Amino acid sequence: MAVEPTGFIALHLDGLRTLVADCEAFQSWVGGEDAGEAKASVYIEAFYTNDNLPVHRPFCLIGLVTSESEEVATRRLFTTSGGYRLIFEANVDPEHAASQEDAGFAFRNAVDAIIAEIKTKSDGEDEEGNSYVRISRLALEDPMRRTDPLRGQVDGDAFSESWTVMLGGWQ
Fold first, then answer.
1. DSSP string of 22-82?
2. Contact, 167 vs 12, CB < 8 A?
C-alpha cells in the first residue's frame, strides 16, 4: 500500500510535484501523455541519493530549503510556510545544438511556459476540485546555464535552472 503524505512538509512536496506534473507545458516538455506520466519526471531530492536518482532528462527536481520552513502561531492559528527549490534540467536538443541562441531559447521558452502555468494554477483547483499549493513567492534563484564542456563529456550537453518557491497560508 502506498504511503500518503500527511505532515505539512510532505504535503508541500507532494503538492508541488502534483502542480508541476499537472502543467500541460511540463507534460509536453517531458513527453508525457498526462499528469500521471509527467509525474514520473518530477523527483523529490531528499528521497534519493546521487547514486540512485533515476534522472532522465528533461526533469524537475524539488528540493527543500530547510532554513525557511517554519510554523508560526498567532492566536491559535498557524501559518505554515516552506521554502522549496525547483530545478529544471534538459538535454540540449540535437536539432538546436549547433546554435547557442537556438539551444538557449528552446530551453528558455519551455521553462518560461511551465513557470507561467505554475503561476496560473497556484492556489487554484485541479479538475477533480483538489486545491493546488498556495505559492506566496516565486523567484529565479540560479539562472539557466549550459553544462561546462568538460562536464558535458560525462553528463551530456544540457541546460539547468533553479527557482525558489515559497509556500504558505493560514490553517
1. H-HHHHHHHT-SSHHHHHTTEEEGGG--TTT----SSEEEEEEEEEEEEEEEETTEEEEEE
2. yes
Q: Which domains does the chain have, with CATH numbers?
A: 8-170 (3.30.2000)
Nearest to 14 by CA among 47, 49, 52: 47
Give mean pLDDT, residues 129-146.
90
Q: Cα–Cα distances in Å, from 162 out to 1, 61, 68, 87, 93?
A: 33, 9, 17, 4, 20
Contacts of residue 68, Cβ cutoff 8 Å, sequence gap at least 6: 81, 82, 83, 166
What does pTM read for this prediction?
A: 0.87
Stretch 1-10: mean pLDDT, rounded? 86
Helix axes 100-121, 8-22, angle to 10 degrees: 120
Which amino acid is located at 86 in the chain? Answer: L
* Residue 100 three-state SS: helix
Query: Sign of torsion, CA 16 113 137 62?
Result: positive
Distances (CA, A) of 64 to 44, 70, 135: 9, 12, 14
Count other C-beta atoms under 10 Å from residue 80's C-beta: 19
Number of CB atoms found within 10 A of residue 141's CB: 13
- For residues 64-91, average pLDDT: 72
